[in-house]
Amino acid sequence: MKPEEAARLLHAYVDRELDAAKSLELEAQLAADPALRERFARLRELSAGIREKADYHAAPSSLAARLSAALPGAASIAPRRATRWILPAAAAALAAALAVGIALVRPGDEDALLREMVASHVRSTLGNRLIDVASSDQHTVKPWLSARLPFSPPVADFSPEGFELAGARVDYVGGRPVAVLVYKRRQHLIDAFIWPGSGPRDGAYSRDGFNVERSSVEGMRICLVSDLNRNELSDLARLLIARR
Amino acid sequence: MTDRRRFEQQVLPHIDAAFNLARWLTRNDHDAEDVVQDAMLRAYRHFEGLRGEARPWLLAIVRNACFSWIRRNRPAEVAAGPDEEAATAPADGPEALLARELDRRMLNEAIAALPLQFREVLILRELEDLSYREIARIADVPIGTVMSRLARARRLLAESVRVIAVASRLQTEK
Q1: Which of B2, B1, B7, B5 has its CA nearest to residue B46?
Q2: Average of pLDDT values for B113-125?
Q3: Which residues in chain A have their CB less than 8 angstroms from residue B14's CB?
Q4: ipTM rounded to 2 decimals
Q5: Which of B37, B59, B95 to mutate to test the interface with A (most CBs of A within 10 A)?
Q6: Which of A38, A65, B81, B99 lies at a CB distance of 3.0 to 4.6 Å from B115, suitable for a disulfide?
Q7: Distance, C-alpha A109 to centroid of its chain
């Protein structure tokens, strides 16, 4: 590989867009060329710096309200004005989840289970997040969950790896109470649904624009739901499994 | 389930992504709100055409709405980007900039000052975390162009952050 080509492909490599063969070639080049290595390190830093420091402009709540009024048909979700209805909404959402859970879900109905988890995630993000206990401290979150559930879910903060524990809630999915750990990565929220026993088979799925990553370890099911990309979602799954 | 309900479940949750893109492209809260509202209503009308993931689909609509708006209100900005030829020149330039030196305000100013077609790919890649393929579809250019624009965007950005940093250092020394 010529140096010009290596320099050109560096961006694709940082963005994890290079195919396996080219990646290997470039990695060999990186090992042999300290100047290229230096550029690679700086490029990664620049990319990380942008992700961390560039403003992410979230939509103002007035926009959601305007839209809700402008869309034809009746609103079925309260507009995102949201932040102040969070307490009554939490109760309403839980009631809705219970109702939906009982009406729709038979045990073992994978698709319904997925739908429920995505719906729960959407509800929580629309309501500017449904967190019952907001803490990045696993020693606060874990006892809180254990006190409310018949099992003790694994709880860990992965801030050093870029997944900050934001808190947790208890939800009702597939006819059973589940622990939901809420993680933050950049502007993305990730819900980790955890419960003991059987569940859908492992793998990554995409549903309604959200990614779902399912795994299990030592009798616990872990389902991650987020609009975060799959690669990073699997990173979190691996961390959770390793910590278990 | 009604269309409206499905739209609220599948598309509306991405309103932040829509606004973020529009805000970075128009560089103004008020205009971004107008553009996103138009784009959302348009998305609703074309909702049946949605295949696959909602977020890139919605962002393509928002992006087009932004470009129409910019063409109407700031035609010079669309016409006058640096040419692609320069953009595809071999990467020799310095990304030589350490992230810890990056001041938040300076960085945001520097991104806002990037020419439109570079700002667009940078936001889609770094803030929306979309793949080259998705960005290519949204910006309606070949994947190779996404690559070269992104490389160019990062070089321009590193360069202008450095210039801003030097300038502000001179200011304080005065």
Answers
A1: B7
A2: 95
A3: 209, 227
A4: 0.88
A5: B95
A6: B81
A7: 23
Q: Are A229 and A211 in contact (CB under 8 A)?
A: yes
Shared-domain flag, residues A216 and A177: yes
Reported as a pLDDT band with limits 50, 70 and 90, residue B153 is: very high
Q: Which contiguous run of DSSP H or E holds residue B144?
A: helix B143-173
Distance CA B33, CA A58 (A): 11
State the pLDDT at residue A82: 38
d(CA A48, CA A201): 34
Find the distance separating the first CA and the last CA of chain A, reported in whole Å.
43
Task: Show the DSSP H helices in chain A as ranges.
Answer: 3-14, 20-32, 34-53, 61-70, 86-104, 110-126, 138-148, 230-243
Sheet of A188-196: strands edge to edge? A164-173, A176-185, A188-196, A220-226, A210-217, A203-207
CATH of the domain at A175: 3.30.200.100
Banded pLDDT at A200 (limits 50, 70, 90) = low
Is the sign of the CA dihedral B131, B134, B139, B144 positive or negative?
positive
- Which structure tokens are listed for B119? 């700002």
Indicate yes or no: CB of B147 within 8 angstroms of CB of A12: yes
The answer for B 20-39 residues in CB contact with A (under 8 A) is: 20, 23-24, 29, 32-33, 36-37
Q: Please, which pLDDT band fits residue B49 given cuts at 50, 70 and 90? A: confident
The structural domains of chain B, with segments of one domain joined by +, span 1-80, 81-174
Q: What is the mean pLDDT of residues A97-112?
A: 50
Which amino acid appears at position B69 of this protein?
W
CATH, domain B1-80, list 1.10.1740.10, 3.40.80.10, 3.40.930.10, 3.30.70.120: 1.10.1740.10
The residue type at A150 = P
pLDDT digits (tens, 9 = 90+) for A210-227: 888 888 887 888 999 998
Give the range of the structural domain holding residue A14, as residue numbers without chain letter: 3-53
Query: From the CA of A200, how many Å to the nearest CA of chain B?
Result: 22
Distances (CA, A) of B48 to A56, A115, A122, A228, B8: 29, 20, 21, 24, 14
